[in-house]
Inverse folding.
């Protein structure tokens, strides 16, 4: 009994998970289709032309067999009866339509000849097929802006969201996986979902019109078709759900592959230095094999959609053929042969759009896996954002204050990165943050431009909490030079002038001179308009850092944040740049993070940090006299 209860519970759990997956999938598909809002005009024209195309297609087929029945009829008595009968009244039914067509053709044959009527039929069919294909093209013409426009809007929103998400979001994500979502997943949505839009809009119209015609001819057969077709759809839908699950795994493997490739390209120097090529290769091959096996499953399931849907469609068709044949050939016929043949022709036209619709369904299921991954970014919470009614901060006049600031990452159990920091930085002062790695120096500096927000406490500029001001206003007051030189694949001029509009070449050159970069820039082939490659790969480490410093100098901010700004420079360049920075910092408020204590001995106040707390503070002379942690650090570096 317990075994059956376990099986029942397991099935119930699977059913609940399946329902949740279905609801989630529907939300994702509607999340993608909501981008159509700006393209309703194109959607209206697409649907209109699809209706016209379906109408002309089905009308030509539905009328073909009554035409042929009259034209090639060997029953002269029947032809005479048709020619002598009065014009029948028209009403919406298959018999009325057939009677009216027969009457028109019989009169034409009576007035002219069967050949004349045949020519008229041929012209009529050509005209209807022409308009069918014309309207079909117009339908695709107006779906193209929707397909491409929706994907364009999604890319724009995704890129915009990546720009506004806080840095803490990326600490939990692999860069390669995010790149995979922005490229391959968005491309999958374009091909899987958006390419199916035309089918989604067109095929239901064709199916509905076909069913209306079929219902007018025989409601009994049509009712049977409406019972059998959903059963076939359920069978196909079962496989579609498993396809989405497999596609989700495939996308995750794609992200892992891109992460490995990104890490490999960025770490080739270390990989070669430690003879780790074989280890990296084995890791990549393992993930690549798993990815390949998943892709085989995906393709097999996708390839199953067409033959399976065709088999199910033909099964339903044969069932209709058998039942309809009994209605025509039985002892008491309830349907004429011409009507039944026309009905079968219409039903055969129903199979093609149903098959296309099934293919679209499979593609959508595959694309939903990508939509889920993209929506994880689009729906991610933006924890650092502007307040509803921001306070204006246009300048820095008095003091920066850290007031009871504490910070921890999501897992507080790992401990506080910063713990109850209280610090005032007056305008024009240079404050240096020193301490061992992991003491919280960089985190403390990163809170000033709101890369992170305090878990507890607040940071104020001139008495205004930076959370109450706009992000752009706060960051406009600051210039930052990081320990790692972050440059872009562009010219030196554009890298120095990054983020600043209407900059002259003279201003860029002046900033480069202050940063001791003008000399080596002038010696380059195109000077300030030389492209420096990916992440500044064409420059040495010291040159990259001096370009970064020139960028901060050009911004001319009242507050400078220097995170090991001279660490990548050689001794001569460090001395020249440090002299320039010392002059630059005289009229500015500076927060300097330094491991080399020799570079911050002239700071107005040195803050010594340990395990997220301030343990000492004072000038260089005062801290040496205290004979504490700072003096130990200083003596250690002097010894080295």
């Amino acid at each position: 009994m317990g075994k059956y209860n376990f099986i029942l519970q397991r099935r119930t759990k699977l059913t609940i998970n399946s329902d949740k997956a279905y609801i989630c999938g529907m939300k994702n598909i509607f999340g993608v289709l909501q981008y159509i809002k700006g393209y309703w005009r194109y959607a209206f024209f697409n649907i209109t032309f699809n209706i016209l195309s379906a109408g002309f297609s089905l009308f030509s087929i539905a009328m073909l067999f009554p035409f042929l029945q009259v034209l090639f009829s060997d029953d002269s008595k029947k032809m005479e009866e048709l020619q002598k009968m009065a014009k029948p009244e028209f009403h919406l039914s298959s018999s009325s339509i057939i009677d009216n067509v027969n009457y028109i053709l019989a009169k034409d044959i009576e007035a002219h000849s069967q050949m004349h009527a045949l020519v008229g039929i041929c012209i009529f069919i050509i005209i209807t097929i022409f308009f069918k294909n014309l309207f079909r093209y117009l339908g695709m013409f107006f779906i193209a802006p929707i397909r491409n426009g929706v994907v364009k809007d999604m890319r724009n929103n995704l890129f915009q969201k990546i720009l506004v998400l806080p840095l803490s979001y990326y600490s939990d994500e692999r860069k390669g996986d995010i790149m995979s979502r922005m490229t391959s997943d968005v491309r999958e949505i374009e091909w899987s979902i958006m390419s199916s839009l035309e089918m989604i809009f067109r095929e239901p119209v064709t199916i509905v019109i076909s069913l209306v015609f079929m219902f007018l001819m025989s409601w009994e057969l049509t009712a049977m078709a409406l019972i059998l077709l959903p059963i076939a759809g359920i069978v196909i839908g079962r496989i579609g759900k498993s396809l989405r699950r497999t596609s989700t795994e495939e996308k995750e493997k794609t992200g892992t592959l891109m992460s490995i490739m990104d890490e490999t390209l960025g770490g080739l120097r270390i990989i070669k230095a430690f003879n780790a090529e074989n280890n990296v290769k084995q890791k990549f091959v393992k993930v690549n094999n798993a990815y390949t096996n998943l892709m085989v499953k995906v393709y097999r399931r996708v390839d199953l959609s067409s033959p399976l849907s065709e088999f199910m469609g033909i099964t339903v068709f044969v069932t209709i053929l058998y039942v309809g044949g009994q209605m025509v050939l039985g002892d008491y016929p309830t349907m004429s042969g011409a009507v039944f043949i026309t009905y079968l022709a219409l039903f055969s036209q129903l199979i093609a759009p149903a098959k296309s619709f099934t293919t679209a369904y499979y593609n959508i299921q595959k694309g939903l896996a990508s939509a889920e991954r993209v929506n994880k970014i689009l729906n991610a919470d933006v924890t650092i954002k502007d307040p509803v009614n921001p306070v204006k901060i246009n300048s820095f006049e008095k003091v920066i204050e850290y007031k009871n600031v504490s910070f921890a990452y999501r897992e507080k159990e790992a401990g506080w990165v910063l713990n109850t920091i209280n610090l005032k930085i007056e305008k024009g002062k240079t404050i240096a943050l020193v301490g061992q790695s992991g003491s919280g120096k960089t985190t403390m500096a990163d809170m000033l431009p709101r890369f992170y927000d305090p878990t507890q406490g607040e940071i104020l500029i001139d008495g205004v909490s930076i959370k109450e001001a706009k992000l752009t206003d706060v960051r406009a007051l600051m210039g930052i030079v990081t320990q790692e030189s972050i440059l872009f694949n562009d010219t030196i001029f554009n890298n120095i002038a990054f983020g600043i509009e209407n900059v002259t070449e003279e201003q860029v050159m002046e900033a480069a001179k202050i940063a001791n970069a003008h000399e080596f820039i002038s010696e380059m082939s195109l000077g300030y308009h030389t492209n420096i490659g990916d992440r500044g790969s064409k420059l040495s480490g010291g040159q990259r850092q001096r370009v970064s410093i020139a960028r901060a100098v050009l911004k001319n901010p009242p507050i400078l944040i220097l995170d090991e700004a001279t660490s990548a420079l050689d001794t001569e360049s460090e001395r020249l740049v440090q002299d320039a920075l010392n002059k630059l910092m005289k009229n500015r408020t500076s927060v300097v993070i330094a491991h080399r204590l020799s570079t911050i001995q002239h700071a107005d106040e040195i803050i010594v940090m340990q395990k997220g707390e301030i343990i000492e503070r004072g000038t260089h002379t005062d801290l040496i006299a205290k004979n504490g942690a700072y003096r130990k650090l200083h003596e250690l570096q002097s010894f080295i």
